[in-house]
Amino acid sequence: AQSVTQLGSHVSVSEGALVLLRCNYSSSVPPYLFWYVQYPNQGLQLLLKYTSAATLVKGINGFEAEFKKSETSFHLTKPSAHMSDAAEYFCAVSERTGGGNKLTFGTGTQLKVEL
Amino acid sequence: KAGVTQTPRYLIKTRGQQVTLSCSPISGHRSVSWYQQTPGQGLQFLFEYFSETQRNKGNFPGRFSGRQFSNSRSEMNVSTLELGDSALYLCASSSGTSVYEQYFGPGTRLTVT
């Protein structure tokens, strides 16, 4: 079975600083990877996805992620944090089973942005 | 395009009762998946429906069931509610073909007392 591990359940950065949220995956086949963001009392919003087309993936709100096969990583970055980025971020891998797909999520990283 | 809608948004039930949650996917999407989110277990996959057929199921007891209608709308049902069923239930819709991203609704917050 495929899995993802998110290192750091809580990350705190200053406004304007670099955001780096870590995700490592485990997969026996080329993975399809996603980053989602969840604001309080809301569902999950797709930030970006990796489907093997390009290793550097750009998403919404200035976020991007780089797929590194040698490191089995898919870390999420943003050059300059904004207060509105404070939320919980989930890395997920899509697993093909039973003719369909299911997402397996990491445990999430709560991002805090301080003035 | 309208997003995924879920009703109701909040629900309070008593242990032993049953509950039905509803999900309307994005227009044109044929796949609906359900996930349970709790502080202790995180996000866990419940099941996926495609063209009215369940084609994936997670590791949940038989008290959790679902169905999909011909218009792709889906319902999930939980019978004989337990306190541990208190969670945010998220519905996600996708095109259902090949590998695809899933788009989530706002969720239904179920509290079991």
Question: Could you outline the blueprint of secondary structure elements for this entry?
Answer:
The complex is a heterodimer of chains A (115) and B (113).
Chain A (H helix, E strand, L loop, with lengths): L2 E3 L4 E5 L4 E3 L2 E3 L5 E7 L5 E7 L5 E3 L5 E5 L4 E6 L8 E11 L2 E6 L3 E6 L1
Parallel strand pairs in A: 2-12
Antiparallel strand pairs in A: 1-4, 3-9, 5-6, 5-10, 7-8, 8-9, 10-11, 10-12
Chain B lengths: L4 E3 L2 E4 L5 E6 L6 E8 L3 E9 L2 E5 L6 E5 L5 E5 L8 E8 L8 E2 L3 E5 L1
Parallel strand pairs in B: 2-11
Antiparallel strand pairs in B: 1-3, 3-8, 4-5, 4-9, 5-6, 7-8, 9-10, 9-11
Plain-language structure description:
- The complex is a heterodimer of chains A (115) and B (113).
- With 115 residues, chain A is an all-beta fold.
- Helices cover 0% and strands 57% of the residues of chain A.
- Chain A is built from no helices and twelve strands.
- In chain A, strands 2, 5, 6, 10, 11 and 12 form a six-stranded mixed β-sheet that branches. In chain A, strands 3-9-8-7 form a four-stranded antiparallel β-sheet, with no helix packed on it. Chain A has a two-stranded antiparallel sheet with strand order 1-4.
- In chain A, strand 7 and strand 8 form a beta hairpin.
- The termini of chain A are far apart.
- The mean pLDDT of chain A is 93.
- Chain B has 113 residues and is mainly β.
- In chain B, 0% of the residues lie in helices and 53% in strands.
- In chain B, the strands form two sheets. In chain B, strands 2, 4, 5, 6, 9, 10 and 11 form a seven-stranded mixed β-sheet that branches. In chain B, strands 1-3-8-7 form a four-stranded antiparallel β-sheet, with no helix packed on it.
- In chain B, a hairpin with a 2-residue loop joins strand 5 and strand 6.
- The mean pLDDT of chain B is 94.
- At the A-B interface, strand 5, strand 6, strand 10 and strand 11 of A face strand 4, strand 5, strand 6, strand 9 and strand 10 of B.
